[in-house]
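RETRY 2/3 - previous attempt timed out on the joint model. Re-submitting the same 732-residue input unchanged.
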Amino acid sequence: MSIYLFTDFGSGDLYVGQVKAVLHQYAPSAHVVDLLHEAPAFNVKVGAHLLAALAERIPAPSVTLAVVDPGVGSAREPIMVLADGKWFVGPDNGLLSVVLARAQAARVFPITWRPETAAASFHGRDLFAPVAGMLASGDFDAAQPEQKTGLDVNLGGDDLAEVIYIDHYGNALTGLRAGSVERDARVVTGAMRIGYARVFSEVADGEVFWYENSLGLVEIAANSANAAAKLSLRVGQPVAVETG
Amino acid sequence: MSIYLFTDFGSGDLYVGQVKAVLHQYAPSAHVVDLLHEAPAFNVKVGAHLLAALAERIPAPSVTLAVVDPGVGSAREPIMVLADGKWFVGPDNGLLSVVLARAQAARVFPITWRPETAAASFHGRDLFAPVAGMLASGDFDAAQPEQKTGLDVNLGGDDLAEVIYIDHYGNALTGLRAGSVERDARVVTGAMRIGYARVFSEVADGEVFWYENSLGLVEIAANSANAAAKLSLRVGQPVAVETG
Amino acid sequence: MSIYLFTDFGSGDLYVGQVKAVLHQYAPSAHVVDLLHEAPAFNVKVGAHLLAALAERIPAPSVTLAVVDPGVGSAREPIMVLADGKWFVGPDNGLLSVVLARAQAARVFPITWRPETAAASFHGRDLFAPVAGMLASGDFDAAQPEQKTGLDVNLGGDDLAEVIYIDHYGNALTGLRAGSVERDARVVTGAMRIGYARVFSEVADGEVFWYENSLGLVEIAANSANAAAKLSLRVGQPVAVETG
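RETRY 2/3 succeeded.
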């Protein structure tokens, strides 16, 4: 079973490798795929919406290790969510709650397994990675009796009218799902009103537009140019949809 | 068969993982190697020369997924190139043309396979990755009748007298192959005339020189220092060779 | 046997993929794990201390390819170190010496194998990767007669009272092992005296503290904020411990 990683650990930093060393010990034959390690640091809310959008592209069955965890070492609980045949392992701080709310069928389990020793600051390596590895290799008894009835922190499944991520091209992903946005609507952010185009090559070089991106989200982009720099966009910035 | 990735998707961004999720579905037993995801964004010309230099290090048989594709969603065609026993999958926008022009033996095929659904902005995930995965796993009938006689966009196999990449040390790779450059030649860029050294440790700390890099290209470097910052070098900047 | 990579090659740059292409040829069934490719460039001393801290998390048996090698192409020798059941392959420039000095049991071997052709600037790909691959696949006769009695460059096993790495959150790792530092001690750097906290969530948002990080090192951090930016910390900056 493949293991997918979604974290704010930094793709070039020294944390992901330590997690993978543990995963390979617990699940030697599993593929491990880095979905994203540049989730905005410390920002659980936008992380939860990014994860929910990416989760639709994750095959089932699978295990996803999801860690944006500024409260590591505090009292927040470790949990497993089984959503539409896909396992998600992470902290009960809201990060898994958008996935859960949007799932057709989902269950929540507390993680009661504990390592012999764990660094207070790195549950990703010492707690979540072993559990993800055990799930992926089938060594873990997931049918634990104490299934939880809900999450401690629940952000709900609604869209988030904010910029949730800015990619290295300078495209700004929002937490708005494009399926419910009319193509003649404008996306408004700050003083800018932005019109729709189907794809980059349909507008002039440097022109800003919004489109339905490959995750199904409203995204603000510019053709062969950096939209975020042009418009001074930042993660967490509000966006609105204006129709008529 | 191993799959090599060469893109401008950003090594830390959320695109590579989505591509790998698809590759693992189509070719579960293939090694997937990230050659480069920081190819200069939107710049097909320098990407084509970088890819051609790297391609000489790729073992055969293999499949390389190559995507620098600012025109994704427009009319440019998807193609496969078989060059000296190595498959290359990508857009017919010039990116594969330097590899093709320098190959001893090469053939070009149109990609006629189409996915049931594809995001207009992410053919790397929805079209090129499935094809690369099928090639790597042997599931794809490459001997298609409609072999193409050439490319729509052809940059040719000649050297490119420009900076084509600046690495994180600040070394500036050029599109000039060093085999044909005399060791007593100077490399000229802007107002600078730069002399040759065999290797970093042969010049003083901070000193700028050119050398034949590990890909066989003329590279402008400095010992334990950032040459690109010292000389304000940028991708696309012209370079010349001065002899005598 | 798994292969771990520790280099200053840059996680997004075009060097790691070339190394992996070679590793897969020599050890097709080995897992390859990127521990860190953002070791501070050209800085062997802090690299040696980072590697020693990470090495405690590497399982045995294993092979680690370690390259921070500003003197590549000069006379420094290639070596293999077997430390507590783990192989380390790299240059004899001090990089492996802290691992060696702290090992319970260790031996040093010269690398006498030479490739037919090698780029003077990329022994990581042309010399160290083949040797690491051969070790991992068991094809290499490690019991070479000419076991070395020591290293040419030896930094010793003592702590390093410097900032050795700054992660992407802005946390500053030091070369001080926290086990021997009293919890009521202050860590002093520049004009700042920094008190202890067990974990991030025990201090207020933005507050700076030191703690024992997940590698067992003294680390200067701030809760949900960038400590290095707040305190203008840099790799190589001296730190001291003040007690009483």
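Residues 42 and 80 of chain C are 20 Å apart (CA to CA). Closing ticket.
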